[in-house]
Amino acid sequence: MAPHITFLFSGVVFGLSAGLSPGPLLTLVISETLKHDIKEGIKVSVAPLLTDLPIVLITLFVLSRLSNMLPVLGVVSLLGCAFLTYLGYESIAFRGVDIDVEQAKPQSIKKGVTANFLNPSPYMFWFTIGAPLVLKASKIGLFSASLFILGFYVCLVGSKVLVAIVVGKSRFFLKSRNYVYTIRFLGVILLVFAVLFLKDSLELFGIL
Hints:
Elements: H1 3-20, H2 24-35, H3 38-45, H4 47-65, H5 70-92, H6 109-118, H7 120-140, H8 142-169, H9 177-204
Helix pairs in contact: 1-8, 1-9, 2-3, 2-8, 3-6, 3-8, 4-6, 4-7, 5-7, 5-9, 7-8
């Protein structure tokens, strides 16, 4: 597989996993859709496009400054392995989503942005997984790095928009086998990436 296709595939997998797995932002997408309409759910879905740029730039800047400190990058890769293992386990154990519409307060794009800023997951992802992969891809070429970012955000936002549309038509989708099995399958792939990050970490430590 060509390197740029590999990074595109990585972005797609991580984007789908982040977009479809339960979390604060997906809960807002679902509750807004059920409480109001599909349009409101879609508004919340685009929050990462408004919040993630500073996170991405800061993590890329910090890690690029540490590019010659291999043990530090080894620790970052090890943290990425641990985070991916956690996400993979959570996804494999996933059984469906329960949303209490009566308790869901009206939300807006503003609250979606706030929720994403306060959610630690984007920071953890970009510091331990996203930024290291972008820097690795940039060594091959800007095109590879761009494909990773493009694949990630198209699938991250696109999958949340898709959830809003499907939930707007049938809330039973959240408990459907297709949804549950998709999350579990993505969990298995995340565990594969966890192994790859562990390998990178051991290489940076000079063990392999």
